[in-house]
Specification:
The chain is α+β, with helices and mostly antiparallel strands and about 190 residues long. It has one domain (about 5-185): NADH Oxidase (3-Layer(aba) Sandwich). About 40% of the residues lie in helices and about 15% in strands. The chain is built from six helices and four strands. It has helices spanning about 5-10, 25-35, 55-70, 75-90, 110-130, 145-155, and strands spanning about 45-50, 95-100, 135-140, 160-170. A four-stranded antiparallel sheet has the order 1-2-4-3, with helices on both faces. Helix 3 (about 55-70) packs antiparallel against helix 6. The relative contact order is 0.23. Bound molecules: flavin mononucleotide. Flavin mononucleotide binds near residues 14 and 138. Flavin mononucleotide binds near residues 12, 137 and 163. One of its GO terms (molecular function) is oxidoreductase activity. Its cofactor is FMN. This is Putative NAD(P)H nitroreductase. Belongs to the nitroreductase family. Keywords: Flavoprotein, FMN, NAD, NADP, Oxidoreductase.
Length: about 190
């Protein structure tokens, strides 16, 4: 698959089969991530690959966030239900890669650019997953940035999660995509 085809045909795929993903494919995806552009060679990213019961790392994060944010006083049974429902979210795909930005301590690069590099890494990974015939989706949501989620992943200092890449073999579903023409977003400056 050439780059143009990969860019145009990649879609976010949330529904995947439970079959495990080969480690070699996941390694190719990680390799693509680390070749993203990054200012001053800071390589400001960290990855966690979660498979099998390992997905409980993310599940516990979701559960801790949900419990911390519960407005009502919960009975033990209600708390257990909430915990289980949130834990399940991490099991929507056979493999999940958490990606964090780890901004350089040297402050040579503005933090916004460290995020840009981490986001570019995620997109490299999504394109590679697609080219390898896998389905992938970049998921975030408010729990991603919650202190309890940071705690679950042991983030330090300025580190932040930038998303979770859910990965698996795609279910054969029709995929829709809409984009406005680039002309609506573009000004050509020639003089
Ligand atoms: C930073 C970021 C966060 C996202 N978070 C979610 C999410 O939490 N849940 C979700 O279903 N899709 C999420 N998406 C995927 C978008 O919904 C998706 O890219 C968009 O609908 C366009 O579809 P396409 O990727 O198939 O072109 C996210 C995308 C980005 C860039």
């Amino acid at each position: 698959m050439d780059v143009q085809e990969a860019i145009r045909s990649r879609r976010s795929i949330g529904k995947v089969k439970p079959d495990p993903v080969d480690r070699a494919l996941i390694e190719e995806i990680l390799e693509a991530g680390i070749w993203a552009p990054n200012h001053a060679h800071t390589e400001p990213w960290r990855f966690w690959v979660m498979t099998g019961e390992g997905r409980g790392l993310l599940g516990r994060g979701y559960a801790e966030v949900a419990l911390a944010e519960a407005v009502d006083q919960l009975s033990d049974e209600e708390a257990e239900k909430l915990r289980d429902a949130n834990m399940k979210k991490a099991f929507r795909a056979p493999a999940v890669i958490a990606v964090a930005v780890s901004p350089s301590e040297k402050a040579v690069v503005p933090e916004i650019e460290e995020y840009a590099a981490a986001h570019a890494a995620v997109h490299n990974m999504l394109l590679t997953a697609h080219a390898l015939g896998l389905g992938a989706i970049w998921r975030t949501g408010a729990p991603t940035y919650h202190p309890k989620m940071r705690e679950a992943f042991g983030l330090a200092g300025k580190e932040e999660l930038v998303g979770f890449i859910y990965l698996g073999y795609p279910e054969p579903l029709p995929l829709k995509a809409v984009r406005k023409p680039f002309a609506e977003k573009t000004i050509w400056v020639t003089e």
